[in-house]
Amino acid sequence: MLRIAVPNKGALSGPAAAMLHEAGYRQRKESKELVLFDNANDVEFFYLRPRDIAIYVSSGRLDIGITGRDLLLDSGASAEEILQLGFARSTFRYAAKPGTANSVAELAGLTVATSYEGVVGKHLADSGVAASLVHLDGAVETAIQLGVAQVIADVVETGTSLRNAGLEAFGEPIMESEAVVIRRTGADPEDANVRKFLRRLQGVLVARRYVMMDYDIRVEQVEKAVALTPGLESPTVSPLHHEGWVAVRAMVPTAEAQLIMDQLYDLGARAILTTGIHAARL
Ligand SMILES: Nc1ncnc2c1ncn2[C@@H]1O[C@H](COP(=O)(O)OP(=O)(O)OP(=O)(O)O)[C@@H](O)[C@H]1O
Ligand SMILES: O=P(O)(O)OC[C@H]1O[C@H](OP(=O)(O)OP(=O)(O)O)[C@H](O)[C@@H]1O
Ligand SMILES: [Mg+2]
């Protein structure tokens, strides 16, 4: 049986549960359920604080977990990411009142408030800068107004929280983060249960990122058309009853589908259809 850590609240929680549900796993019905056994799939889910997930996984008590890359690095736990999930994307940045500092080098002697002391401490040390850290649990942007620090280092998604506090990000982003699947460093990479779980999630990622495209085209144009829709491996080309025409079927990235349909139409393709992919196993 596979034991999996899932975020129980915050920015990661909803999208993680939605992805697991799409991958065919049972998910909890209400937020007070902290452990859920999915009998049919032989999986047990543990709903844990996002910050704690890397610690449980590194201990070996749980096989894998879903967390943020920034939280994984901040924990310092002995765990590694094995799949990027594409949601809960953020950057991690220094910010301050305009005129305070323009680069990490200018932080020397200043106080930086953050909830991610592991990430920030390492970044300052790697940059050879001696600054003081103040740990806060959240709402870090307010620390400057209240005089607890001159600088903050925090998660930035839309930038709204910084703007509302009259702060500006500066310097290179400390890191880019997104939700990731993690496992204990040194765990068996060939574990069959883990591989099956990852294949299911990869199937969801493919189903979300691609559509199936079908069209009819004259035989003379098929090579040009297929160059526009190469598919993931090779498109299916089938004869049509109407002589001189073939039907083509290929997966195309959802984001490019409309542009490709225009180009196919200009090549003479007709009956161009796209349909959603429900699930995939590549
Ligand atoms: N707008 C956002 N706000 C917060 N976290 C975000 C946002 N966008 C993406 N994330 C990611 O979500 C994760 C943080 O999740 P969460 O907010 O649940 O943690 P936390 O702030 O440490 O927890 P809590 O606020 O409950 O103490 C990080 O990986 C972060 O990069
Ligand atoms: O760039 P934005 O779109 O504004 O998002 C970033 C903000 O969201 C998060 O806060 P959260 O809601 O998790 O509260 P917290 O800081 O108290 O954890 C993060 O800590 C930032 O404050
Ligand atoms: Mg938060």
Question: What attributes does this structure have?
Answer:
Alpha-Beta Plaits, six-stranded mixed beta sheet, amino-acid biosynthesis, binds adenosine-5'-triphosphate, binds magnesium ion, binds 1-O-pyrophosphono-5-O-phosphono-alpha-D-ribofuranose, five-stranded mixed beta sheet, ATP phosphoribosyltransferase, alpha/beta, D-Maltodextrin-Binding Protein, domain 2, cytoplasm, 33% strand, magnesium, 282 residues, 3 domains, ATP-binding
Name of the CATH class of the largest domain: Alpha Beta
Task: Indicate the structural class.
Answer: alpha/beta
CATH superfamily annotation of the largest domain: Periplasmic binding protein-like II
Sheet with the most strands?
6 strands, mixed
CATH fold call of the largest domain: D-Maltodextrin-Binding Protein, domain 2
Cα-atom radius of gyration: 24 Å
Number of domains: 3
Total strand count, please?
15
Order of helices and strands: EHEEHEHEEEHEHEHEEHEHEEHE
